[in-house]
Write a structure and sequence with these properties.
3-stranded mixed β-sheet; 50% helix; globular; alpha/beta; single chain
């Protein structure tokens, strides 16, 4: 097996199977600009390698990905050098180049993809978890989009939930309430494919990948295009571009900025939970 270690990710190549391993376990594999850059490089390597048929996205540490790096304004230039110097340049370099095209590149990756999720998969981390072709989670995994309730933004980089769920009632509930879903609940909602015991996660995903890899690459790629284009014919690709603009509009809005300032150092997931507890206390 060949292995290449980048700043935030390990890329593995084992015959027809490649793996992107998120590798910042001491920081909960949070999404920084550097992680996105590393992820994009790995996608290109796997796409150009004619031997690779299946790409697995997985993570080291206690969980899959805790979402965007939520930092204070003075930290932004280091963590997100894509911001500034003006709002309109942030719109291009940050909202599009960092948070729109990379998710679309994962969605449009020409070969089969499998997300191997354990522990936390929240916020921007769900982009990796949901936009892969197949998602297998361990029974300790949980899923959440805390950004509307906890940060004032309508969703992550792109608001993919209507397309993943194909149910607007579920999409509204998920985004409005910021509820945490267990792996079994995520499966029931249609966000993931399978739930297995934590000890069986690796072997289950590897067996899936090996099964898919038995097919000719052309077969895999044409299946991929057939399914992907069905969603794109319904408007998914244009809608995801639109939602990146919605996130930009919200991020500059006065009421959203005021809401963000009230975090007092708390992460969006904490803000969402504190809000839910406050409502429950009032009802009680």
């Amino acid at each position: 097996m060949d292995s290449t270690e980048l700043e935030t990710i390990i890329y593995e190549k084992d015959g027809p199977i490649a793996r992107i391993v998120l590798n910042m376990p001491n920081k909960a594999n949070i999404q920084t600009a550097q992680q996105v850059y590393d992820f994009e490089d790995c996608l290109k390597w796997a796409d150009r390698d004619e031997e690779v048929k299946v790409l697995i996205v997985k993570a080291n540490g206690n969980g899959f990905c805790a979402g965007h790096a939520i930092v204070e304004p003075e930290e932004m230039p280091n963590v997100y050098p894509t911001t500034g110097p003006t709002p309109e340049r942030t719109w291009k370099k940050h909202n599009y180049d960092l948070f729109l095209w990379p998710p679309l590149n994962l969605w449009e990756f020409s070969k089969a993809t499998i997300a191997q999720v354990h522990g936390y998969c929240v916020g921007g981390g769900t982009v990796y978890g949901y936009l892969c072709d197949i998602t297998v989670a361990s029974d300790d995994a949980y899923f959440q989009m805390p950004l509307p309730q906890g940060f004032g933004l309508p969703g992550a980089q792109t608001i993919m939930e209507p397309w993943v769920l194909m149910n607007f009632k579920r999409a509204y509930e998920y985004l409005y309430l910021g509820s945490t879903l267990s792996a079994e609940e995520a499966k029931e909602w249609g966000l993931i494919n399978r739930v297995v015991k934590r000890g069986d996660l690796e072997s289950t995903v590897e067996e899936m990948a090996q099964t898919i890899a038995q097919m000719p690459l052309t077969t895999i790629m044409t299946v991929k295009q057939a399914v992907k284009r069905a969603w794109e014919t319904m408007g998914m690709r244009v809608h995801l571009q639109n939602t990146a603009d919605f996130c930009q509009i919200a991020s500059g809005a006065t009421d959203v900025r005021e809401f963000m300032m009230k975090r007092a150092g708390r992460l969006p997931r904490q803000v969402a939970e504190d809000g839910a507890q406050a409502v429950r206390a009032e009802d009680g």
